[in-house]
Amino acid sequence: MTEATPNKPIVVGVEGSPSAIHAARWAAAEAARRGTGLVIVHSSPPVPVHSPQVAVSIAEFGEAVREQARHWLATAEASAAVVAPQVEISTELLTGGAAGQLIGRSASAELVVLGSRGLGGFTGLLVGSIAVAVSTHALCPVVVVREAQPQADRAEDAPIVVGVDGSAASDAALKFAFETAALRGAPVLAVRTWLDAVVDATRLTVLIAASIEAIEADERRLLAEQVADCAKDYPDVPVRRMLSRDGSARVLVEQSASAQLVVVGTRGRGGFRGLLLGSTSQSLIYHAECPVAVIPPAHR
Question: What's the pTM value of the predicted model, to 2 decimals?
């Protein structure tokens, strides 16, 4: 263990599954890169007591649940320590809904990290019930660690892929992507899909009246301008730009097969006011082949 760091820690939620161990190890490595601590948390639901006649047995059951949780925390801590022995690691056993606890912790965290599925073994179970909720409401970036393709198979120069569309959400995502790439010595691949950008009520007439070449040239210019505005602060980070006419979710999922990380905002400029987590972000959480970072617009 090292001396305490004043930086905000990375918080990772665990619940005993192999996916949670993958998340704890990923979080430990990221904490080492960022020079901060790691807090491993587990939140158990409260054990109700409805009758004095069953209070003793309920208390025994509750202690068994807590003992199991302590074992899960210790296992995750040991696994994380192997990856990053220099990182200060602490554990917290909480009571209550996991999503609510992690959203609360996000106010004082650098990142919140989750695995992609839980102990039930059903693909997407944790994603549907916890990770989407946390990604939607967290006050800091949330990383969902997917293990469809082991990260050990990725080349060291694999890119940080980021989806951009000119929105405030994608500005925050782009900044996070460059920060992360600088820490890893990795390049950035900025992806913009112009078909998504133009097929809306305000620009449909432009699509009909103008040539595809002109629209594509305009979208390429917008992509270059947005990337250049952020890249100037990271002159040592190599950056490539990719413009596609395909759907954003499809393109980003395809690019995730060879990426270290895919970064997106909570929702883009096409998002409906009540749809807090955009369709692209949700698709990546479910289907990407590498970890996915979802960045709230207010992140700086």
Answer: 0.84
| DSSP-assigned states of every residue in the chain | -----SSPPEEEE--SSHHHHHHHHHHHHHHHHHT--EEEEEEEPP-----GGGHHHHHHHHHHHHHHHHHHHHHHHHHHHHH-TTS-EEEEEEES-HHHHHHHHGGG-SEEEEESS-TT--TTHHIIIIIHHHHHH-SS-EEEE--SS-GGGS-TT--EEEE--SSHHHHHHHHHHHHHHHHHT--EEEEEEHHHHH-STTTHHHHHHS-HHHHHHHHHHHHHHHHHHHHTT-TTS-EEEEEESS-HHHHHHHHHTT-SEEEEES--TT--TT--S-HHHHHHHHH-SS-EEEE-TT--
Which residues of the chain are under the pLDDT cut of 50? 1-5, 120-125, 198, 270-276, 300
Counting beta carbons within 10 angstroms of the beta carbon of residue 227, is it exposed (0 to 12), middle (13 to 18) or buried (19 or more)? Answer: buried
State residue 204's pLDDT score: 55
User: Cβ atoms within 10 A of the Cβ of 24, count?
Assistant: 29
pLDDT score for 5:
46
pLDDT at 125: 45
Two tokens, residue 20:
């949670």
Tokens of 121: 């073994």
